[in-house]
Amino acid sequence: MSGFTKGPWVIRDGGLGMLEIVPSYDRRGPHERPGLPVAVIYNCHNRTIREDAALVSAAPELFEALEDAQQALAHALSVTAGIVQPSTRIALEFAESKASEAIRKAKEVSK
């Protein structure tokens, strides 16, 4: 995940209805200072917002898993050409395409 703050990330109570998403202290990179949040989420009295915070905190692991899955799907497509049923190939292509698009979106930086 070059370019991203290294994971895993954890949720820390920031007080006053805030949650902070911070890198775990045991896996900081050389340029990351302890305790600096990668995200702050406000108005966390709502259950859905707290669940959103949990999803955000899982982002590094989810991204890594998605990259692994996309590579596995691409490999499966390359070695199973002509072997699998057309409907299976279509499903593999669709899943690989969705994974590739999500990875692209995650790497996109606003200018």
* Global mean pLDDT: 87
What global shape is seen?
elongated
Strand content: 5-15%
* Strand arrangement, major sheet: 1-2-3
Number of helices: 3
> What's the helix-strand series?
EEEHHH
Termini distance? 20 Å
**Low-confidence residue ranges:** none
Short description:
This protein is of the alpha+beta class. The protein is 49% helix and 14% strand.
Task: Please provide a written account of the structure.
This protein has 111 residues and is of the alpha+beta class. It has two domains: 9-57, no CATH class; 60-105. 49% of the residues lie in helices and 14% in strands. It is built from three helices and three strands; from the N terminus they run βββααα. It has helices at 47-57, 59-79, 86-107, and strands at residues 9-15, 18-23, 39-41. Strands 1-2-3 form a three-stranded antiparallel sheet, with helices on one face. Strand 1 and strand 2 form a beta hairpin. 8% of the residues are buried.
Layout: helices, strands, pairs:
Layout: E1 9-15, E2 18-23, E3 39-41, H1 47-57, H2 59-79, H3 86-107
Antiparallel strand pairs: 1-2, 2-3
Helix pairs in contact: 2-3
Fill in the keyword field for this structure:
alpha+beta, 14% strand, three-stranded antiparallel β-sheet, elongated, 111 residues
